[in-house]
Design goal:
The chain is an all-alpha fold. It has nine helices and two strands. A two-stranded antiparallel sheet has the order 1-2.
Length: 208
């Protein structure tokens, strides 16, 4: 069938229906994994919440873990995108740029506790595949920090340093602090956490 004559249902193409179905499953994953936990959520519950049949679920995802990884990737990519946007628009010194980028990343993750729980609690240790994806995301973040550090050295703002290992230390610290924050009751305001981690980042890089 020619593309222009693609069959439509209620005004939508088959692909549009599939895209909408997948988006509903991702929204259900965010809601359920982020509130009740990954282990406590069944495929049937995901389908019920998303108003998707089990048969259609398996047309979109091979298993429940694939939904978790897709939701996790959404959150990380959103945060990383905001951090890169902050770096692109900032024309300040490295200390300001570092804090702006970190706050932009954190703001998209921890202001929605569901995304924070998924990124820093639920996805941890789920499977070797999940750990591989976490390491890949960590490497992407580390690469951004390395690039910014080397650029600051070129501008004469900082002495040469082992930016890779400093970046890994920062990522590890952020993960550990937010993991602990997720279980605090009452949980301190997100703004306090952002401020504390911003100070920590500056100290790690010798900027405070």
């Amino acid at each position: 069938m020619a593309e222009g004559n693609e069959r439509r249902y209620s005004g939508r193409s088959v692909q549009e229906w599939k895209d909408a179905r997948r988006e509903r499953l991702l929204d259900a994953g965010l809601a359920l994994f982020g509130s009740e936990g990954y282990q406590g959520t069944s495929i049937e519950r995901l389908c019920s919440t998303a108003k998707v049949s089990t048969r259609h679920f398996y047309q979109e995802f091979p298993n429940k873990e694939a939904v978790l990884l897709a939701v996790h990737e959404q959150g990380v990519q959103l945060g990383l995108g905001k951090a890169l946007e902050a770096l692109t628009t900032a024309e300040e010194s490295i200390d300001v740029r570092l804090v702006d980028a970190l706050r932009a990343y954190l703001h998209t993750i921890i202001t929605d506790p569901r995304r924070g729980r998924i990124a820093f609690v639920e996805v941890v240790g789920v499977s070797p595949a999940a750990e591989l994806r976490r390491r890949e995301f960590r490497e992407a973040i580390v690469a951004v920090i390395e690039e910014e550090g080397n650029a600051a050295v070129a501008r004469g703002e900082m002495p040469p340093q082992d930016f890779r290992h400093l970046a890994i230390a920062l990522v590890g610290a952020v993960n550990g602090v937010i993991y602990d924050w997720m279980f605090e009751d009452p949980r301190p305001p997100a703004e306090e956490l952002e401020a504390a981690l911003s100070t920590l980042a500056l100290r790690i890089f010798g900027l405070a």
